[in-house]
Structure formats: C-alpha cells, structure tokens
Amino acid sequence: MARSLTKRAQDYSKWYNELVVKADLAENSSVRGCMVIKPYGYSIWEKMQAELDKKFKQTGHENAYFPLFVPKSLFEAEEKNAEGFAKECAVVTHYRLQTDPEKAGKLQVDPNSRLEEELIVRPTSEAVIWHTYKKWIESYRDLPIKINQWANVVRWEMRTRLFLRTAEFLWQEGHTAHATRDEALEETKQMINVYARFVEDFMAIPVIKGTKTAGETFAGAVTTYCIEALMQDGKALQAGTSHFLGQNFADAFDVKFTTKEGKLEKVWATSWGVSTRLMGALIMTHSDDNGLVLPPKLAPHQVVIVPIYRSDEQQEEVVKKAKSIKEQLESADIRVKLDDRDTHKPGWKFAQYELKGVPLRIAIGPKDLENDTVELARRDTLSKEFVGQKELVKVVVDKLEDIQKTLFQKAGQYRDEHITEVDNFEQFKEVLEQKGGFLSAHWDGTQATEDKIKELTKATIRLIPIDENAKPGECVLTGKPSKQRVLFAKAY
Amino acid sequence: MARSLTKRAQDYSKWYNELVVKADLAENSSVRGCMVIKPYGYSIWEKMQAELDKKFKQTGHENAYFPLFVPKSLFEAEEKNAEGFAKECAVVTHYRLQTDPEKAGKLQVDPNSRLEEELIVRPTSEAVIWHTYKKWIESYRDLPIKINQWANVVRWEMRTRLFLRTAEFLWQEGHTAHATRDEALEETKQMINVYARFVEDFMAIPVIKGTKTAGETFAGAVTTYCIEALMQDGKALQAGTSHFLGQNFADAFDVKFTTKEGKLEKVWATSWGVSTRLMGALIMTHSDDNGLVLPPKLAPHQVVIVPIYRSDEQQEEVVKKAKSIKEQLESADIRVKLDDRDTHKPGWKFAQYELKGVPLRIAIGPKDLENDTVELARRDTLSKEFVGQKELVKVVVDKLEDIQKTLFQKAGQYRDEHITEVDNFEQFKEVLEQKGGFLSAHWDGTQATEDKIKELTKATIRLIPIDENAKPGECVLTGKPSKQRVLFAKAY
Which of A91, A109, A121, A156 best tests the B interface by mutation, with the highest count of B CBs <10 A? Predict the structure, then answer.
C-alpha cells in the first residue's frame, strides 16, 4: 500500500492526490468537484474545529446559523462582492421533481415549480448576514455583534483538487459589526493573529502575516489580512484571511445605529474565515514519501500499539500487556490505538500507520515481555529505540511534545531558506524557477505591474508584509519607486 | 417584554411563535421557510450536539462528511426513497450568474451555465452515501461501517414553522452498513434507545418508543422505529427516528460483500436522525406563559446573577461580591452569567432571564451583604428563598439537579395523564377533541382505516408500542380484529 505512493521528487502533485486518498482522508464523489471527507480525515478536521472554536469563544464570539440560500436580490446588493462570486455560483431555480412521463422510474424537474426568485447557494454569507444584522442593530447598545458560523459553502470552481479547491467545502466564517472603525480594525487584526497562533502552535505550520494587494483583496473588503504558508514544493498557500470590510456592507444593506449622543452612523464590519483547505496545508507541509506526518496535537491517534507474536500463547500475553500499556498512556490523556487484529501482519500494520501519519508507534513482542521494554518508533524521523516500560509514559509525553516542536522548526527552517531577496527581474525568474519559495522583491504598487509579473512568471504577490522598518527601493520589473519589499510566489 | 407574550391558553401556536423570537432562539430569514438560528438558540443546539456526538462515539460511530448535492440519477436510484422526497426538492440547474444587460448592477442566471445533470440539494443522504459505500465495501472485513454526519438538509415544505418544520434544517444522520440482518436490526434498535435516553435524561422530555405503521414509515425503509413526545397542547411530536433499511439500498446501488466463506451477499443498512426540530420539542414541553423553561443540562447559563444597588458605592461592593460568587459557582462547573450592566434595571433583567429560561436566578443587594445571603429564584416553580452564601454552591448544585428531575417528572405526569384508552369511535372523537393527547386504541392494521381516521379526525397513528404483553381486540373504527392497541394523536 504505502509502497505504491508516488515519490514527491517524481511528481509532487500526484504524490499529494494519491496520499489524500490512500491515507483515508478524502476522495472525490459522484458530484463534480465535491469531496467525501472520510472518517480519518474528518477526525483531523474535528480537532481543528474544536481548537478554533475554543479560541473564538475565548475572544468573545458566539456561534449562530444563517441560511444556506441567498436570494439573488440580496446577493447582488453589495456589487463588488456579488461580482467577485457571480461566476462560480450554484443556482437553485426549482423546488420540485415529478415522475418523467417518458421514462419509467425516472424523475424530471417539474417545470411548474420554478422559483419566482432564484436562490444562490452561499459562496460566503456577508449578504444574508448583513441583511439580518440590519434587523438586529438600532443603537450603540446592540454593538458589537461578534458571530461565527460553521457551515458548508459552494463555489463552482472549474479545476478542483481534494481539500485545496473544491466546489463545496467546509469552513467557519466570522462576521462582526462594530460602532467604530478602530474597533473593527482591531477585530480584523485580532482574528488574523488568532489564525496565525492556531496554525503555528496547533498545526505546526509557520506562517507569514501581511495584507493583500488591491487585486487580491476579498471582493467587498477594504483590506484583507492573510497568513501564508510555504509548501514543500516551493509554492505558497493562503491559510486564512481576515477582512476589514469598512462600511461597504452597511452601505449595501443600509445598516445604521444611533450613537450614545443620538447621532445616526453607519456600522463597521469584518469577516474572517478558514476552511478545509487547511487540511491541504497540513498534508503538504509535513508529509513525506512514506505518507502522512501528523503533528501530535491534531493526530486522531497519537500512538499506535502493534503486538507481535508467533504462537497463540504469545498472542495472549503480548496483547494483555499491550492493553495495559494502552490504559497507562490513556490515563495520561494520550490518544492511543491498539491494533490487535490478527487478520493483518505487523509489517502491513507498520506501513499502514506510517501512511496515516501516527506520530509514535509502539511495537511489543515476546522479547519485550522478558526485558520489560517496547520498541518505540517516531514517524517524523523514522528513528527507533527500545524504551523501558516503566519510563514509557514519560518518554511518550516528551516525544510527542518534541515531535510537535520539531515539525514546526523543520518547516520553519525550510520556509526561511526559501525566502530570497531578489533585486532584478532576471534573478526573479531564475530563483522562481530553480529554487521556488517566496521572492522578496520591490514592487511599484500598481495593478499593471502585478498583472504583468503574473503573466510572465505565474507568480503573484502573496502579501505585503507588516513591517515597521520597511525600506523603499526600486520595482523589480519597472524600476519605479517602491515603498517596501513584498512577497511573490507561485501559489495554490 | 415578557409581559407581551401571548398566553398559552389563549393561543398556543401564537405563544410558541412569539416565544421562539422573543427568547432569541431563532427568527425567519429573507429566504422562504429558512430560519436564522440566533446565538442563544444555537448554543442550546450545540449542547445537544456535544452530548449526542459523545453518545454516537461511545457506541462506535465515526463522523464523516458527504456532498450537499445529489445528482438526479443517483437520487432516483432507490425509487421509494426518491418518490418520498421528490415533491420537496430544491434543484440546482445552473452554475453561473452574469450581469443583466438590461438592468445596471443586477445579475441574471447565465443561460449557458446549465448543468448537464440537475443536482438535488440533499433532503437526506442515503443515495449519495450508498453510492459511496459501494466503493468501500468488498469483503466482510470492510463491515460494519458506522458513520454519522452533522449536516444541513433541505426539504421544500409548503407550510413552515420555526424549528418544527423549516425548508433548511440542521441534523445528524447516521448511516450504517452490516453483514447480517440481525446486526442491522440491533443497530436500529440501539440508536432509537440512544435517542430515547438522550431526550429523557438530557432534555427532560419523556418519550414513548415504538414502530411506525407502513404508511408512516420512512420512504425506502423496511421498519421505522420512533420516539414520540407529547406537547402541552396535547399534540404529539416525533422526536427521532431510526430506520431498518433492509437491503433496499444495497439493491438500488448494487452493494455486495464477500462473506468469510467466499459467498457474495447483499449488505444490510440502517439510518437514523434527529434534527433542530428537537428545539421545538424542548420549548413546547417545559415552557410557560412567562417564557422559556430550560432543563439545566442544556441551559447555556444555568445561573444568572443580578446585582441590586442604589448608589455607586453600593454598586461597587455588590458587584464585587457577585463576581466572587460567580467564581465559586464556576469552580463547581456551573455555567454562570453575571449581568452587571447598568444600562438596564433589575426588574427588566428578571423578566428577561425568565423569558430566556435560565434555571436559577441569584439576586444580591446591600441587605444580602449584611446578612451573608442571596435571593435564589427557581425558574420552573417561580419560587424564591434566601440562601446563606456559605451553603450557596451546594444548594445551587442540588437545585439544578432537582430542576432537571422535576421537569422530567412533571412532563411525564402530564404525558401519562394524557394517554387514554378508548374503545369506540364516539369516545375516540370526544377524547381527542376535549382532552387531546395519545389515544390508545385498537386498529385493524389496514392503511384504509388509518387514512379514514385521519380524514375524520386529523389524528394519525403515532406509533405501534413495543409491548410483549399486547392483547388483541377490535378496531375502534371498523370493529375488525386488532392485534394490539396503537397510539393515535394529532401531531406536529
């Protein structure tokens, strides 16, 4: 199984597609561009959800739920937002099926069930939510509103890839309403920081924070803050965004409030989201040619125990010990799987759990019973050692911590080595092709230059770093004045 | 606010609709039949989800996620299931909008984006899931599959009511695949028992277990097990169902497995679900003319503390004590809200938290500081007493337990008093109109009689009780032989 995985150096993209399916994370469904998230993949997503949800609540947000459908007239109210999503909208036009008079047992859309107004399956929920907020907001006492929603959204992308770009995906979307510009901006920044801490501390993926250029800003936003991560193939991946929406949605939906002083003012807005796309970032940051590598904090099983035996008698004793080890580890809050199936051989199991990225593997056999030891193998380094059963819990706890840290450091080192300052366009192209990663380059600030560079190299501006000490220079393409270096990369 | 709530005796239905909105649980959205679940309502749903999810995992189920859309050709594969839902399906026919050439700033559906095959927004996921299971199941080693999904579904109901019947609703749907009939039947029964325990122990709603008649069985199922609860107005509400699907979906999607002995056999199936409809049951079982009454186990706030003061000096001291009481209670794992806003008066707050069903209210004022007491009020009985601050944590813990128990007992007593044995049709009609509740009556087992009684009285057979000692008799309408009494009621 694991043996048939394409090597990364051979074809990174193929390696990714194979790994997602073989490690039981997700697969394509019968609906174009929609995926089935399998239990193993979903349990990783659940861990992410739980941690994010905790962080949202700690920062004063509440969950709620808004409709899946957006009436066309609401959808088009904020023009830029509508324009940005119009080309990839699933549209509900009818509400009934009937038996097909010409084909027995088949159904057809009932032509008499056409909706008066078409419904858009939400690609994002600003429109439906701001239409609702209008009803909720009258005075300053009703502000701020800080709501998050866990939901599915649909964007009819033409080229889809499991987790990275799917027609339907799962995400959370935060939507907040504030009395002042400053408070909304603070919220926008707070949430990009929440995302950055989550992705770094929990997923062990180092990120760079910054803002998007006008061309890459969310449709309907004033400023988009983002975190960008670097994948092993030198391409960047946008891992989360937080948008300062200004008063655009207050304008579109006429949302005003009375201040303490009795004045009528427009409400300020933010929105922010991360999605199942993070699963793609997770896979492409840590995994290797043997399969998935999972940071312990979100591994469904942090330790797998594989008993090894020849005879039935050995089996009984070894499995008994394995169970007792499982209990010990579990009492230290470690997530443990004991695979004592006798339908599969140890070698098959080793390969299987390597493929699935379980951080630590404990193998225990008759010799270990004699010596009071187990064999402990690390997934990230593939190193093995014998550990005394007495020290085991402590060793496992330490190793899990160390794996979490090591993965982050390793990814950080790779990322740092792949930020290259370039000062002319020849160098830009050369580094992009031969080394990849982020190119730190000066840019004249115009959309035209951004577009031209994209056309020539496929690299886009991933972000404008937030840097107090940024120094001016000359644009890498046009030589015109530049306020600061920005980060270019090819991107997912 | 609370004062303007319609009385139950006056108009139960109006009382319900008002309460859902005024207690901040949910409201209608701009999309016909779709609701907005507001943060307070959603936090109750989250508590239900967490508890159910734990129970599902304890019984060996894993979560996964399947697509929102079902291609028409898959949808129609299981004919009865398709027929059952065909008349209430939202159908996606196009995947793109474009600017309307005739109206500036408006969008229209791009006629060139018509889908080759229409997509049904899932009303339930058997079709899409069994199409997937076919790929997953080859041998007995792949069985059982025990998967649950938390999702939104859409059924285009003509008459909708918040929580009780909405076009889009949230639910969980379990879908399991088994090697044998017995195992699938066991699973079906296990899950109806899981639901019953959850609804009784956690929501304090007594239920009756049974099976549905053929006419009320889930479209595509062999047997539907259900739990039915009784609302305060004497109408029944179906609170959860668990379906034994036999081999119907294995037939429709050609899902077979190789047995240990090498034979090819068809897979057995179950599905089971509960939805946000349970919120309706919760509201209508416990609440009163002052507003919501929540069982402590799922109350977002189990205790609210309202400080009472006249002067600034008093405010400081009282709020300080209130905060310390909050901390003490929280350290005993009690969910506490301290409402120390000075924009609202205590009386307003009292009414507000009554309306929102907070189980216990603590009021604390200057006199209480002198006497080391607080005033403790129970939401369910509206009784008040002074409690010494030293005993407070213990008293609160005990009262919360008592409220949970009392609510269940009270609802159970009402339910028991509203199960009436009737032995002729005159009595049937009389009891139904004058007393309501469940009518325990003999039925001849035919669809025709069931339909006739429904036509004459609007009562349906809610369930066939599971009763080992059931005695035969004569049908209440036709006088024909009956195997056992069944429960009739008007229903939501």
Answer: A91
Q: Chain A within 8 Å of B91 (Cβ-Cβ)? A: yes
- Across the interface, whether the CB atoms of A31 and B70 are under 8 A apart is answered yes
CA B129, chain centre distance (Å): 23
Nearest to A356 by CA among A2, A45, A49: A2
Give the CA-trace dihedral at B11, B14, B20, B24, to 10 degrees: -110
For B67, which of A31, A65, A141 is closest by C-beta distance?
Answer: A31
| CA atoms of A295 and A335, how far apart (whole Å) | 13
CB burial of residue A259 (10 Å; 0-12, 13-18, 19+): middle
Distance CA A250, CA A273 (A): 20
B 322-381 residues with CB below 8 A of A? 343
Are B129 and B66 in contact by the 8 Å Cβ rule? The answer is yes
Q: Verify whether the Cβ–Cβ distance A71 to B99 is below 8 Å.
A: no
Q: How far apart are CA B155 and CA B157, in angstroms?
A: 6
Q: CA of A417: how far to CAs of A97, A226, A436, B428, in Å?
A: 58, 21, 10, 82
Name which of B70, B89, B139, B156 to mutate to probe chain A: the one with the most chain A Cβ atoms within 10 A of its Cβ.
B89
How far is the first Cα of chain A from the last one, in angstroms, to the nearest whole number? 27
Burial class (CB in 10 A: 0-12, 13-18, 19+), A44: buried
Chain B positions in Cβ-Cβ contact with residue A95 (cut-off 8 Å): 88-91, 156
Of A39, A43, A68, the CB nearest to B168: A68
Report how far residue A424's alpha carbon sits from residue A441's, in angstroms, rounded to the nearest whole number: 8
Q: How is residue A424 written in tokens?
A: 């002319």
What pLDDT digit, counting tens, does each position of B413-466 carry?
999 999 999 999 999 999 999 999 999 999 999 999 999 999 999 999 999 998
Calculated CA dihedral for residues B351, B355, B360, B361, nearest 10 degrees:
-20
Position B3 scores a pLDDT of: 58
How confident is the model over A327-355, as pLDDT tens digits? 999 999 999 999 999 889 999 999 999 99
- The whole-angstrom separation of Cα A162 and Cα A307 is 34
Q: How far apart are CA A198 and CA A210, in angstroms?
A: 16
ipTM for this model: 0.96
CA distances from A318 to A222, A308, A321 (A): 63, 7, 5
Query: pLDDT tens for residues A468-479?
Result: 889 999 999 999
SS3 label, residue A95: coil
CA distance A32 to A84: 22
pLDDT digits (tens, 9 = 90+) for A297-329: 999 999 999 999 999 999 999 999 999 999 999
In 3D, which of B177, B33, B141 has the Cα closest to residue A68?
B33
- Using CA atoms, how far residue A388 sits from A174, A318, A362, A373, B185, in Å, is 48, 15, 12, 4, 47
Pick B42's closest partner by Cβ from A42, A63, A168.
Answer: A63
B478 touches chain A (CB under 8 A): no
* A37, A92, A99 ranked by CB distance to B65: nearest: A37
The answer to whether A177 and A135 are in contact (CB under 8 A) is no
The backbone torsions φ and ψ at residue A410, rounded to the nearest 5 degrees and listed phi first, read: -60, -45
- Count other C-beta atoms under 10 Å from residue B316's C-beta: 11
With contact defined as beta carbons under 8 Å apart, do A163 and A279 qualify? yes
- For B14-22, the CB contacts below 8 A with 24+ separation are B15/B289, B16/B161, B16/B280, B16/B283, B16/B284, B17/B161, B17/B162, B19/B283, B19/B287, B19/B291, B19/B292, B19/B355, B20/B162, B20/B163, B20/B283, B21/B162, B22/B291, B22/B355
Delineate the domains of chain B, giving CATH numbers in brackets.
2-78+123-286 (3.30.930.10), 301-399 (3.40.50.800), 419-489 (3.30.110.30)
Which residue is closest to A57 within chain B, CA to CA?
Answer: B43
